[in-house]
Amino acid sequence: VAGSVVLSRAQREPEAAVAVAWMATAYAAVAGLLLALDSAPLGTAGPGDLSGAAVAAGGLGAVLAGLVALLGLGDGRALVLPPVVVGAAFCVVGLVLRAGGGVDVGVLLATLLVLVVLMGSLFPWLALGMTGARVEQIYSTADITADPDDVDPDQVGREARLAHEILLAITATVGLLLVLVAPVAVDLGLSGTLLALVCCGVVMLRTRQYRAGSEVLVGLVAGIAGLASVAVALLWLQPQWRPTTALVLASAGAVLLAVTLLPGPPSVRRGRLGDVAESLCLLALVPLALVATGVFSAIAG
Prior knowledge:
single chain, mainly alpha, 13 helices
């Protein structure tokens, strides 16, 4: 954290400062996790036990380091929000698990992931709302004919940059949560795996609404990293699915290679197909979540 502050304040390197701050939150999360495991009674916790106090301590470590970085950094401090928000989410989940009640960590995290992905359409509006940009509404003819207020170009530029950073931070938050929760969703079975895949698809398809290259890049990287996390979790947690997983990965790679080698001009038809695909994925999220979390089984039983 101290290194990130020095890079931001003294060296004037905001990108490097944000990267080092992310590393600091990762170190802090691991430190909190190990502290909780080491302080547990002998024989009650191990490397595979990530429930309760361990999850809460790991999330709390990321939150504390991230908040200190937020206070110390200058330009680009909004980009440190993703590990803070994700750490806070894991901290809350850990506290709920520690309170007991037979709550499954996979169910909690999968539900949280679905809610965050469904709220993705509000991200641009939320990013703009966090800035000071305001548009006066027109209610009468006098409002139309009145002289407009003076516009400060520098202030508009600062607000636009801030909104851009907030949108990047929110998209990166969803991507980080997607990468971390995907293995937990895969552990829920076929419905959880499909849920994680659909969430990755929604995150990537949503980049069609963005215009800045960095926003599109962050969304695509988040979705691809989520798919990679799902693939690794399938190979590790579901050994009986390994032949099918290998076949699907090979087929997806062949299709991606063919699409890359045969580019085409922009077309309205492909845009409409993208809209339909995104709508179908959004509509499939809630039923898949009900099946993956066991709500459908409980109702049917």
